[in-house]
Amino acid sequence: TPVQAVSRWRQPLEAVMKRILKDYQGTEPQVRDGMESGMRRLFEKPYEGEIAAMMGWKALAVEDAQRIVFFPRMSDMEVYVKAFQLDTPEATKRKEQLMKFKLLSVFYTLHRHDGGLAERFMHFGGLLSLVSLLGEENRVIQSQAIELLHDFLAPHMAMQPASSGRQAHLQHHVFLCLSSGKLWQYCGLILSEPGEVFPKSYSSSIQLLAAAIGWLRPQTGHEVAEATVPPEVKGAMTALQRCAKGSTPLAPEMRQVAEELLEELADLPTIRSDPMSGEALKKCQSNLFDPAMQKREDAAHAWQ
C-alpha cells in the first residue's frame, strides 16, 4: 500500500538486514535467503492488528508496528514480554502464535545484543516470559528461550548485593524466574524426553536448574528464608534421577552435576527471600515505569 511504500523505516531496514544476515554467513544459501525473505515479509506485515489487540490499544499504524519490531524503543520491550507470555494454541490462536514466534526471532537475532533493551526487557518481567516459551512444543523456540535465559541470568549469578534500587528490581525478577514452578516443570519435561530434543537440551536444562538452586540458597547472615522450593521440583527430580542413573546420554561431568543437584534437592530445601518486595517494590516500579521517565530513557537510548 502507499503507506508502506513511504515508510520512514524502509531505508534504515537495509542496515538492520545486514546485521541480521551477518550471523548467517557461511550457512546454506537457502537458510540465509529464507531468513532474509521472512524478515522482509515481517516488515511489510508487522502484525499491527495482533499487537494492538494484545496491548489493548485501539489501533496501531503499520509504521509504528515496524518500529516496534525492527527499531524498538526501550518502552517497546513491554510488547515483547506480553507476546512471549501469550498462550497461543495453534488450533485457535495461529496468527498470535506466528506473531509471538516472529518477535522472538527478531529479539533473539538482534535486540538481545542491545544492553539497554535487554535490561528494560528484564524490568518488564522478560525472564518469566522466556520461561513461558520453554513450555512451547516448537523445539527451536525452546532452544532459543533457554539460551536467552542463560545469557540474561549469567551476570546476576555472582550474588553481589544490589547497589541500587534498579539492580534490586532486576534481582527481584531473577528470584521470580528461578523460584517459579514453571521453570522446574518445563526443564523437568525436557529432561524426561528419551533423547535430546534440541542441541544440548539435557546439559542446558541441568545447568539452569543447578544455577537456580545455587542462587536461591539462603544467604548467610541475611534475613530468614521464607519459603521452600516449588512443588514442581519433585517432577524435575524424577527426570534428574534418570540422568544420574545413565538412562540418558550425558557427559560424565554433567552426570555429576545432576547427582549433586539431586542431593541438594533431596530434603526440599528452603530458599532465600525475594530481594525486593512490599513498599520498596511498589516505589521502585512507580519510578521505573513513570511515563515521563520512560520517555526520557527512550530518547536517550535513541541517541546511542
Write structural notes for this entry.
With 304 residues, this protein is an all-alpha fold. Helix 6 runs parallel beside helix 9. The mean pLDDT is 91.
What is the typical, i.e. mean, pLDDT?
Answer: 91
List the total number of helices: 17
β-strand percent reads under 5%
Low-confidence stretches: none
Provide the spatial order of strands within the biggest beta sheet. Answer: 1-2
> How widely separated are the two ends?
32 Å
> Which structural class should the secondary elements be placed in?
mainly alpha
- Helicity, as a percent range: 55-70%
Q: Describe the largest sheet.
A: 2 strands, antiparallel
Order of helices and strands: HHHHHHHHHHHHHEHHEHH
Shape: globular
Number of separate strands? 2
Measured on Cα atoms, how large is the radius of gyration?
21 Å
